[in-house]
Amino acid sequence: MLISEKTRRNIFDELRLENICWYWRMDEIAFIKRVFDITELPSTDWRFENMEWDIRQHRYNNDDWENDWIYEDNRLNLIKWSDEDFLKLMCEILHPLVRIDEEERNKILEIINDYLSDDGFKLVAIESWRKLRYYPVKTDENSVNVENVDKFSRPFIKEQLEKCNKKLSEWDFDWAITNARSLLEDVIVRDLHTQFTWKAMDSRGDLTQDYRKIKALLNLSEHTQVDEAFKAITSWITSIVSWVDTIWNKMWDRHSRALEPQRHHSKLVVNSVKTIVDFLYDVLEYQKSRHEKYRTTLLKLPYIRYWTWKHYKHTCRWLKDRDYILNIDEYMKFYKRLDWFSKRMLINELINNFEIKCFDNADTFFISLIVLFDAINQDDMINIFNKTKWNSQSDWNLKFFLEEVSEIKPELATRGMIEYVDEDIDTF
């Protein structure tokens, strides 16, 4: 019991001193049935079966009970009743059906909250669906804290996080879950995917499928060589994402509202989503730190010249020589350390951040692409094409690279790339 006996007695005493009637405009039995099942509570009068008939006899027929009898009745035992039922009674006393006058409601609210604050609770007025209701909030409650807020690259994510907390504290359970789903979706589809690939995900609105794509990018797949316990955790995350999507769909089904969440449901969803989001950004930082080491190593590998003019007599290597390159000791050791995620990160780094200022840079760029070639897709080829075709230090290397790609893996070469090569093919 979190709300002390002292707090409860102080509230009851204050309501008595202010002569505040607990049921006011509502029928007494109708009011008390909103909180307690008085048909299941015993009668203190041998003539009757249950408490409801006691009330009828002693409040309606004889009127020989005091108006504030509810505070002292041992069957209700409000001093030691559950926190949930006690708070529910306090909210019902403030209900607009019980008392219309806003000024009176605010006065009673102030009395109740003044004492509840000692135990870390308060009642708040929430207007939802054009109906005013009062709900209890635990003011000192520690919900899950997201440490990685500074890693968000989109303000929308922080807004949804704040709305989750706000709606939960206001007992607006539907919207707390909706904001939690929006938070998770934006993290997965837009922010994390963009930080990996420099573009938002092509999503069809299936959150579970979208998460599986991010899981692969983060190298969180269950088949990876990690402890079974950690594999189980990543599997659990997939299940939670799926259920968040299912709950949200059932809540907002325009044909039939199949689910009406309560506070404990909403709190579980919100805190689960926040935990998952925080975890994903932790993994992102870990993978980025690994990637930085790989990037530094890649750019320090022994220099190899990529393609050259016909009169150049020294050794150079092409895409067709990839097996030879990967058998060079330093290249072999480096390549064996790479997983698919690392290759993808390195490809994106080369395309987006590597500067080609001289012919040696161009050689390093294309030899690095050859090393990572098994992870290159058509989008990468388009970006490589756009990055290098107007650069005088790399345009000839590009033409030869495109010609090799169109022979070795033609599905990666677009028609525009082939036409670009054909324009000057005779000069190779």
Write structural notes for this entry.
This protein is rod-shaped. By secondary structure, it is mainly alpha-helical. The model has no long low-confidence stretch (mean pLDDT 87). It has a two-stranded antiparallel sheet with strand order 1-2. It folds into 3 domains: 5-138; 149-287, Up-down Bundle (Four Helix Bundle (Hemerythrin (Met), subunit A)); 301-427, no CATH class. It is built from 17 helices and 2 strands.
Overall 3D geometry? Answer: rod-shaped
Give a short account of the largest sheet. Answer: 2 strands, antiparallel
Strand content range: under 5%
- The average pLDDT value, as a whole number, equals 87
Number of contiguous helices: 17
Structural class: mainly alpha
Q: Alpha-carbon distance between the termini?
A: 84 Å
| Rg from alpha-carbon coordinates | 34 Å
The CATH topology of the largest domain is Four Helix Bundle (Hemerythrin (Met), subunit A)
Number of domains as seen in the coordinates = 3
Short overview:
The protein has 17 helices and two strands. It is mainly α.
Give me the secondary-structure topology:
Elements: H1 5-17, H2 28-33, H3 51-61, H4 83-93, H5 102-116, E1 121-128, E2 131-138, H6 155-169, H7 173-197, H8 207-217, H9 228-251, H10 263-299, H11 322-326, H12 329-336, H13 340-353, H14 359-371, H15 378-388, H16 395-408, H17 415-423
Antiparallel strand pairs: 1-2
